[in-house]
Amino acid sequence: MRNTFIARNPSVLVFLAILAVFTIAVTLLSHAYGTGGLSTSFVKTLGKTLCLCLVAIAMDLVWGYCGILSLGHFAFFALGGYAIGMWLMYARTELIVTQSLANAPIPPTEQEVVDAIGSQIFGVVGSSDFPAVWVFAHSFWLQALMVIAAPGALALIFGWLAFRSRVTGVYLSILTQAMTLALSLYLFQNESGLRGNNGLSGLQNLPGVQAGQDEISVWFLWGSALALGLGYVLAAWVVSGKFGSVVRGIRDDEARVRFLGYSVEGYKLFVFTLTAIIAGIAGALYYPQAGIINPGEMAPIASIYLAVWVAIGGRGRLYGAVIGAAFVSLVSTWFTSGQVPPLNLGVYTVDWVDWWLVLLGVSFVLVTLFAPKGIGGLIDLITDRVTPDRHGADYGPDKGALQEGEGRR
Predict the structure, then answer these.
(1) How far from 309 is each of 58, 320, 323, CA to CA, in Å?
(2) Residue among 150, 151, 145, 138 nearest 87 (CA)
(3) What is the pTM of this model?
(4) Strand 343-344 vs strand 349-350: parallel, antiparallel, or unpaired?
(5) Backbone angles phi, psi at 385, to 5 degrees
């Protein structure tokens, strides 16, 4: 029993229980299925926060456990949003065009309907033809597959080129940031086929669904909670056992792991690609709740924010990544919404809408210098007090390894 997955990762059940209670509580307080104590906009904020927690888990897996400081994972997040956004925009426009042509004297041909849809979507950039990237936009299932395939393929190609060249450390971080910047600049062009800086809009409307935003917001909350729960279990399973030990070994001493005969590049590529797919799924759930996506979402600064969330929560701890993302997201919403009164210092008045990013940057520096374990370190202190101290040094590098004195009992 001691060697089972749950026994080695008791935090999984605790996390799933907290997530379930949270989801039920929000549902019962929503306008659609409860008392109406929470507004629909705030339910959407909570749903988006769960998506940010999921991408934070991906970041923690690749950085906190594998030691790869990727400054490009928000690009994979945005790619997932674009992939599902293309279907949402196509299907919604198709309904509008079909209804407008329903009373035409002569029934339109299929090609005329497609041309009308193209004019509606791409008229804003002076075009009416569907670019090649929209070839699957008519099919939900094919576009859902692209949510996984697009970020996964980009991560696989980029990772294979980078890791086989043994690029590490800050140079790898710069490369991931350059990839994100290049992709963002490309998508700003109208020739990209994704409407340039206009992006994709109207994503909050589910085509063919006769329900209001009250119900839809709760549905997306459920979907985000399910994805977060499954993502947490998957990440915990990946970092447990021998595979997890090798991944942490790569983070701590890559040369020694390579000397022991492990394929370091293969492990890195697997983790990098897997986390890109997780980020893409998170983005596919996030942007329909946001209602719009544009190339600005893919700016390098967004990936830097992601690293800050994980650092504040405590990298190398999956629950730390969740705590960090949720804490910063909700506090950011509070500060930037204008609900916090300005701070009058006499000679200067601090407007928190403008100063929030400065406060976030200062928090990151303070956490890095004085609390490297982040907010998650507080949970470690609590669990260390509850769990009996076995004393003795660890025989192995992992937390919870057999300790001196235990082997003789």
Answers:
(1) 12, 9, 8
(2) 138
(3) 0.89
(4) antiparallel
(5) -80, -35
* CB contact at 8 A, 65 and 316: yes
DSSP string of 138-194, one letter each residue: T-HHHHHHHHHHHHHHHHHHHHHHHHHTT--HHHHHHHHHHHHHHHHHHHTSGGGSS
d(CA 289, CA 284): 9
Contact criterion met (CB below 8 Å) for 235 and 318 = yes
DSSP bridge pairs for 344? 349
Q: How far is CA 2 from the centre of its chain?
A: 32
Q: Give dist(CA 156, CA 391) in Å, integer.
A: 44
First to last CA, the chain: 18
Q: Whole-angstrom Cα distance, residue 318 to residue 14?
A: 12
Q: Interhelix angle for 213-239 vs 318-336, to 10°?
A: 150
Integer angstrom CA distances of residue 243 from 70, 234, 281, 349, 388: 20, 13, 23, 53, 28
- The tens-digit pLDDT sequence of the chain (409 residues) is 456 777 777 889 999 999 999 999 999 999 989 898 999 999 999 999 999 999 999 999 999 999 999 998 999 999 999 999 999 999 999 988 888 877 777 777 888 888 888 888 888 888 888 888 999 999 999 999 999 999 999 999 999 999 999 888 889 999 999 999 999 999 998 888 899 888 998 898 888 888 888 999 999 999 999 999 999 999 999 998 889 999 999 999 899 999 999 999 999 999 999 999 999 999 999 999 999 999 988 888 888 889 988 988 888 889 999 999 999 888 888 887 777 788 788 778 777 777 777 888 888 788 878 777 788 777 766 766 555 555 455 545 555 444 554 444 3
Which of 287, 245, 264 lies closest to 89, judged by CA?
287
**Alpha helix ranges (H) inside 188-338:** 213-239, 241-252, 254-259, 264-290, 300-313, 318-336
CA distance 74 to 306: 8
> Could you tell me the two tokens for 8?
């080695």
Question: H or E stretch including 200?
Answer: strand 200-201
67, 99, 56, 87: which is closest to 307 by C-alpha? Answer: 56
Distance CA 26, CA 33 (A): 9
Q: Residue 132 corresponds to which tokens in the numbers above? A: 């090649």
